[in-house]
Design a protein that fits this description.
globular, 8 strands, 276 residues, Amidase signature (AS) enzymes, 6-stranded mixed β-sheet, single chain, alpha/beta
C-alpha cells in the first residue's frame, strides 16, 4: 500500500520539476575575450568570483608570460585582494563598476605595495611610499591591481641618437613581444632579441591582448597609449591632458604627459578611465 501511495504521489508532481533536473549546468565562465560588463554580470549572478577571475588570469600569465615579457611585477597579493572584494560583495557592499575586476598598471605608476621600477635597474625592488592618485581611485572603485606592465625604460626618455632606446625595451625585462607574432627578429644585424613584430610605444598592450587582465592603464607623452593599441589590435582612450591625475606617475613633461587606457573593446577601457 505504501509503495502504491508513493507511486501516485510521484505522478502528481509537476513535470517542470523533472525538466529542471535535466537542464544542463551553465558553462564555466572564461576570462578569454570577456568584457568588463560580462565579468561584472557573471559576478552578480554568482557564476564566477573575483578570485576565479584573478586565478584564471594568473594561470594564463604562468603559461604565456615567458614568451611575451608583458609584465615586470605580478602583485603577490592579487588573490588576497580579490578574496576581500568577494567578501565585500557577499555582505552587500559593492564599491563600484570595477568591483573585483583585475586591472594592470604601467610600471611608471606608483603603488605603495607593489614594486615600481619604471623599467630601470636603478629602481629594481623600489617600493614607493604612496599610491598614485589614479591607483587610489581605481582601488576605491573596487579594482584589483593584478600586475605592473613592462614599458620602454623610463617611458623611452633615457637615450637619444645615435643609439636611441628601442621601443618596449627595458633593463629589467628586456624586449616585449607581440602576441600576434611573438618571435625574435631573425634577420642579420638584429641579434639583440628585438621582436619581429613591434608592440608599439612605451606602454604595454601585449598583456591585454593576451588576456592577462581585463584592461591596462598606460601613459603617453607622444604616442605611448595610441601606438600600443594600434600594434596590438586594442581600443584606447587618450583623455585631455590633466583629465586624469598625473600625481604619482614618473614624469617626462607636464605639457604633454597623459594617462589613459587600453582594452580589447570600448567596454573594457571606458569603465576604468572614468574611475581613474
Amino acid at each position: 500500500m505504501t509503495q502504491r501511495v508513493l507511486f501516485l504521489s510521484l505522478l502528481a508532481l509537476p513535470a517542470s520539476l523533472f525538466a529542471q533536473s535535466k537542464r544542463p549546468a551553465p558553462e564555466p565562465f572564461s576570462v578569454v575575450e570577456a568584457s568588463i560588463p560580462e565579468m561584472r554580470l557573471a559576478m552578480e549572478k554568482g557564476r564566477v568570483t573575483s578570485r576565479d577571475l584573478v586565478t584564471q588570469y594568473l594561470t594564463r600569465i604562468a603559461i604565456y608570460e615567458n614568451k611575451l615579457h608583458a609584465i615586470i611585477t605580478v602583485n603577490p597579493k592579487a588573490i588576497q585582494e580579490a578574496m576581500e572584494r568577494d567578501a565585500e560583495r557577499s555582505q552587500g557592499r559593492v564599491r563600484g563598476p570595477l568591483h573585483g575586476i583585475p586591472i594592470a598598471l604601467k610600471d611608471n605608476v606608483l603603488t605603495h605595495d607593489i614594486v615600481t621600477t619604471g623599467g630601470a635597474l636603478a629602481f629594481d625592488g623600489f617600493l614607493p611610499p604612496y599610491d598614485a592618485t589614479l591607483v587610489k581611485n581605481l582601488r576605491a572603485a573596487g579594482a584589483v591591481i593584478i600586475a605592473k606592465t613592462t614599458l620602454s625604460e623610463l617611458a623611452n626618455w633615457v637615450a637619444g641618437g645615435p643609439t636611441p632606446m628601442p621601443g618596449n625595451y627595458n633593463g629589467i625585462r628586456g624586449f616585449a613581444y607581440n602576441p600576434y607574432d611573438p618571435r625574435r627578429d631573425p634577420r642579420d644585424g638584429s641579434t639583440d632579441g628585438r621582436p619581429v613584430m613591434q608592440t608599439g610605444g612605451s606602454s604595454s598592450g601585449a598583456g591585454t591582448t593576451a588576456n592577462f587582465w581585463a584592461g591596462n592603464v598606460g601613459s603617453e607623452t607622444s604616442g605611448s597609449i595610441l601606438s600600443p593599441a594600434n600594434q596590438n589590435m586594442l581600443a584606447a582612450i587618450k583623455p585631455t591632458v590633466g583629465r586624469i591625475s598625473r600625481y604619482g606617475v614618473i614624469p617626462i613633461t607636464a605639457d604633454q604627459d597623459n594617462r589613459g587606457a587600453d582594452g580589447e573593446d570600448r567596454h573594457r577601457r571606458g569603465h576604468y578611465v572614468g574611475r581613474a
